[in-house]
């Protein structure tokens, strides 16, 4: 059952230089690197966005960092494929007044 939950919420195979790969600088990514911090353990490759339609499948555009795509999740186990320090947290959806989404984010 855990495998099914992960497959629907950003399975490890979805990690790429576009979304989710570990990074230190944007040269490590196809787009932008959110450098290592408590918010993005080990760094996180992402897409700069203004709306979720600009994000890869299984990701939502949140207000963090001026607009960043983060993997959708349902619980902390959904984020385990990203490694230590990742949790499922509620964030504001960019461009949607009052919109909230559950996404993988650091502690």
Descriptive overview:
The chain has a two-stranded antiparallel sheet with strand order 1-2. A two-stranded antiparallel ribbon has the order 3-4. It starts with a helix and ends with a strand. Helices cover 7% and strands 26% of the residues. The chain has one domain. The protein contains one helix and six strands, in the order αββββββ. A hairpin with a 5-residue loop joins β3 and β4. It is mainly beta. The protein is globular.
For this entry, give a set of tags.
globular, two-stranded antiparallel ribbon, 6 strands, single chain, 107 residues, 26% strand
Fold topology:
Elements: H1 2-8, E1 32-34, E2 44-46, E3 59-62, E4 68-71, E5 86-92, E6 100-106
Antiparallel strand pairs: 1-2, 3-4, 5-6
* Arrangement of strands in the largest sheet: 1-2
Compute the gyration radius: what is it?
Answer: 12 Å
Sheet-strand content, in percent, reads 25-35%
Distance between the termini: 25 Å
Largest sheet: 2 strands, antiparallel
Portion of residues in helices?
A: under 10%
Number of helices: 1
Number of beta strands = 6
Structural class: mainly beta
Overall pLDDT level: 89
Write the H/E string, N to C: HEEEEEE
């Amino acid at each position: 059952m855990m495998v099914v939950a992960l497959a629907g919420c950003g399975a490890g195979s979805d990690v790429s230089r576009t979304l989710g790969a570990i990074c230190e600088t944007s040269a490590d990514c196809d787009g932008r690197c959110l450098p290592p911090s408590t918010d993005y353990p080990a760094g996180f490759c992402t897409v700069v966005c203004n709306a979720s339609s600009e994000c890869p499948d299984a990701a939502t555009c949140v207000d963090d960092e001026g607009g960043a795509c983060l993997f959708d999740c349902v619980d902390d186990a959904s984020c385990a494929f990203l490694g230590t320090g990742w949790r499922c947290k509620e964030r504001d959806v960019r461009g949607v007044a009052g919109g909230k989404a559950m996404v993988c984010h650091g502690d």
